[in-house]
Amino acid sequence: MDIDFYFYIIAAALIAGIVRYRSIQPAVLRLLLPFLAFTLIMEVIGKITVKMHVQNHWIFNFFTCCEFLFYSYIYSKLLADPKWVRVVRYGMIAYPVLFVANISFGEGFNHFHTITYRVGSVMIVIWCYLYFRQIMRSEAFESVLRVPAFWISTGLLFFYTGFFFYMSAAYILMYTKLVIDKIVWYAISGTLNAILYGSFLIAFLCPVSPKKK
Predict the structure, then answer these.
(1) CB–CB of 199/154 below 8 Å?
(2) Which structural domain range is residue 33 located in?
(3) How much is the pLDDT for 213?
(4) Are 123 and 91 in contact (CB under 8 A)?
(5) In degrees, to the nearest 5, what angle opens at C-alpha 151 toward C-alphas 73 and 33?
(6) Is residue 135 part of a domain?
(7) What is the pTM for the complete model shown?
(8) Of 32, 69, 177, 210, which has the maximum CB count within 10 A?
(9) 209 inside domain
């Protein structure tokens, strides 16, 4: 079985996170570790099912739905303004409803949910924007390059922005009956995944901020 390069980055990020577990702040980011382990397992399952020519869209439909809800939960804890926290929580309620409606009456159970994936991507990009807006308005003098959540948000922003535009283009091409070269798909997917999990790795390796006296 061929192993994509970003698999190793996920594993490296997971190991770094485990080693520096107590140093990861805020504590809610520690939840990324079991989620990374789960992600790695799902990626391996994806590779195996593709190799065996087993239809796996339904697996990744539910996984990516959980992914959007998980990252939304993280931002519900990172954001300080109660107004935006409520918005995130409303999103966490509305998104599963849209997802179930889409796979039930729209794109179907056995097709990848491109519509609600793009909706989820926009949702996460908005949460990232709100977080960046928050740190830009913060009076703290700490460099953002030392803040794990900054790197996490940067990775998520690039990843979901990239996949939003790719999914949108793929949706158009599907109706024009043009076939997307698998090499193009793997190049885009591999690059975006490497950026995302590389950002996670940097986040876990961020030096601990010195305590103020």
Answers:
(1) yes
(2) 5-204
(3) 37
(4) yes
(5) 55
(6) yes
(7) 0.91
(8) 32
(9) no
